[in-house]
# Entry
Amino acid sequence: MRLKSFAVLFLLVAVAGGAARAQAARETREQFDRRTRWWREARFGMFIHWGLYAVPADATDLEGKKRIAEWYLSNKQMQVKDYEKFASQFNPVKFDARKWVETAKSTGMKYIVITSKHHDGFCMFDTKLTDYCITKATPFKRDPMKELEAECARQGIKLCFYHSIMDWHHPDYLPRRPWEKDTRPAADASLDRFIEYMKGELRELLTNYGPIGVLWFDGGWEHNARELHSQEVNAMIRSLQPGIIINNRNRVPEDFMTPEQFVPAKGPPPDRLWETCMTMNDTWGYAKNDTNWKSAEVLIRTLIDTASKGGNFLLNVGPTAEGEFPEPINERLASLGAWMKVNSKAIYGTTRSPFHSVAFDGRVTAKGNALYLHVFGWPEAGLSLESLETRVLRARTLSGGEPLKVTTTGGPGQSGARVIHISKPAKLDPVATVIELTLAGPPKIQEAELATKAQADGTFLLKASDADIHGRTALYEVSGLTDYIGSWEDREDYVTWKLDVGTGAAGRYRVEVNYSCEPETDGSSFTVGVEGGAKVAGIVKSTGSWHNFQNETVGEFELATGKPTLAVRITDMPHGAAMNLHQVRLVPAR
# Structure
């Protein structure tokens, strides 16, 4: 995995975005929905990062600073020939494919995504293209992917492959690491030749291991889609396995987005598929010196949060060099499995919450004529649900099936909003008590439209977390203490906010945009303005890096009384990405 911002990782050239849209046009929405149905219904999968880096199992760099273990070669600035020695020490004699798949299944996971090859270039499958693989370079000699194929088929779990584009070992992969430019000259290297090698690996993976559910690319950020031949590669993949699902990390949008280590505060648009991948501690590969484990409660609630926003949750495990899951991982998976055994109905096959927000500490998922209330802590004043217009036929807990009393206040013809009140169960789950509401039909919600009002000083502060995102690529992201709209790689994408401009707020405003952009990607043109009304135009300037946010005043315009929609749109994107947009401020022009 990687540590850089998503905007760096997923930059697209404009031609690649156009080609991706052309491909999407060849498949109807009905065909797309049918192909991806199993994945959308699964909601929960296991990520496995396993390779030679499990031998040193060290998540530090040369200075002792904390890093991620699977980047060991890079962290220690090793020469490739020195890293190769770990192959002779890699002998996972305790690997048991049946046990791994049983663990995933008992946890409630429906698919497994495992590293066929990570950035170190070591192949964890039997390949004819290199001796640098588990069956030839290690004393183990077996092909764990073949054994997992058999067990996944037997136990009804979808087998999926992670595959790194970046390859620090292959002589044709470019660029070289900074510390090896003298020891591994790049003059005779050919990235095009490397892509042919990678295509050969992918052909083996997609022809020798049965039906593969997902091809999960990573490590594509050092090149653009044209250099990676991404459209050509994806077309080859689909020619071998037409039903496969492909992620967005070879620099084209494809089937689904991949936020890493966080759940977007606001889910992407409903028609976009996405999956949050996350570690249980701070690293993906096994590290004996990383004991910063997330609690089972945090992991269960993260699964719920992801499902409530319409996404999948891909939870990582890092097996040891002996082939076992560390005990802290087993403990957390067991807790997740116990909760899922009772409450999986509220996760599998559900869709995002129909509510903008709820008045209790928890989340909501939906399925057909049912709502599932995931209550983290029962409110002192009692549990209530506002704005639900569809009649509730009955309520019960999923744990034990305890029937609960439902009363209604407010509603049409009465003062105040319609509120559903639900009685307290005799037994609460301290992590998440799930209440199933069976409705008379699909949930119909009558919520007041959310709109941003002026602050006390008259300024409208339009935050990234409050924006509505439209399009194929743009995503709400968080890096450190700053949030923003990033991965903005399609000029057709745009973001909007609804404003509430009261009588006293109408007038002229100065438009300030806070954004970041690296030097190689500046130059995009954009507009900020009221839909169907006044707008101002600007050009994105370099701020030094994707993490350095700066303010820019782009002009002034008039706001009239009412509830207009303000939009930021891209009019030209010459270098494959727009900007990381933190916020827009409308400041009264004095």
In short: DSSP finds 14 helices and 28 strands in the chain.
